[in-house]
Amino acid sequence: MSDLVTFGETMLRLSPPGQERIERATELAFRAAGAESNVAVNAGRLGLDTAWLSKLPDSALGRKVTASVESEGAEADVVWSDEGRQGTYYIEQASTPRTTNVIYDRADAAVTTATPAELPTDRIETADAFYTSGITPALSETLVETTGDLLSLARDAGTTTVFDVNYRSKLWTPEEARPVLESLFPDIDVLVTAVRDARNVLGLEGDAERVARDLAEEWGFETVVVTRGAKGALAWHAGDVVEQPAFEADTHDAVGTGDAFVGGFLARRLQGDGVPAALEYAAAVAALKRTIPGDTALVTPAEVEGVLNRSDDGIAR
């Protein structure tokens, strides 16, 4: 039995070194990357027994994905398909005034046809928690239904359900996303959202605390976590609000920071910590991720504790 099971697409990430332009690049780093596998890997490295579920093409590229996920800290339990392709994305890192650019090449990926009937759903039913994100239902009509069915199945089995809104404007519009997301909310125990997504996609107003309270009151979530970028995060739980500032970090690669935060939060919650301690731990994991290339937080519990225990002079004691 796994502590945490996740479901979603994992792509292959191709990126030129440093801040080189893609059009001039002569080499590309080649890594696996996907919100749900990122969370499984991150939480797995921090003490949980984790598994990532998906559907992949039976090809060298599909096997590259599973090998990468498993080498970094999570079990990959996938359905192999003779149809559909392996999704990829290209990322061009940049500093101000340029902006980092992501180019998706994921149409007709094998995962877009995944259904509960072909997935190992018994793993979800016996897990402590099940996680997926708003990226998954954005990929196809089939995955809208599959996401809803998996959340409902988990809830019925007594598995804690965790969902990150994780809105991607290159996948769908706010008008397309909102009704789908809200249709999933009744089966979600723990909701994570960026404050900007709560405003722009869910139509909420006010600061992070008001957003968290409004979401909890309207949908009955057990916990709502609202991230605020450089301002840190805030959580509503059982009527109490907890704020957590961000830890300072020199940013090398910001992609995957949100997944690192969620992985850290779930690692501590599922190991018995309260929301305040889990939120602080999550912020530390997110800060460490910003210093690491790639999508996953390849960190150890000792490194996280080092951030938490660092004194004002920057020395871990």
* Total of helices: 10
- CATH superfamily, by name, is Ribokinase
| Widest beta sheet: strand line-up | 5-4-1-8-9-10-11-12-13
CATH architecture: 3-Layer(aba) Sandwich
Shape: globular
Q: Mean of the pLDDT scores? A: 95
> Percent of residues in beta strands?
15-25%
Per the CATH scheme, the topology name is UDP-N-acetylmuramoyl-L-alanine:D-glutamate ligase
Number of domains: 1
Q: What is the CA-CA span between the terminal residues?
A: 37 Å
Largest sheet: 9 strands, mixed
Helix-strand category:
alpha/beta
Query: Could you name the ranges where pLDDT drops below 50 across 5 or more consecutive residues?
Result: none
Rg calc = 18 Å
- The H-and-E topology, N to C, reads as EEEHEHEEEHEHEHEHHEEEHHH
Q: Give the class-level CATH name.
A: Alpha Beta
Percentage of helical residues?
A: 25-40%
Q: How many DSSP E strands?
A: 13
How would you sum up this structure, described in words?
Strand 4, helix 2 (about 60-70) and strand 5 (about 75-80) form a beta-alpha-beta unit. The chain is globular and about 50 Å long. The longest helix is centred in the middle third of the chain and has 16 residues, at about 140-155. By secondary structure, the chain is α/β, with parallel strands linked by helices. About 35% of the residues lie in helices and about 20% in strands. The model has no long low-confidence stretch (mean pLDDT about 95). The strands form two sheets. The chain has a nine-stranded mixed β-sheet, sandwiched between helices. It starts with a strand and ends in a 9-residue tail after the last helix. The protein contains ten helices and 13 strands. It has a single domain, classed as Ribokinase (UDP-N-acetylmuramoyl-L-alanine:D-glutamate ligase, 3-Layer(aba) Sandwich).
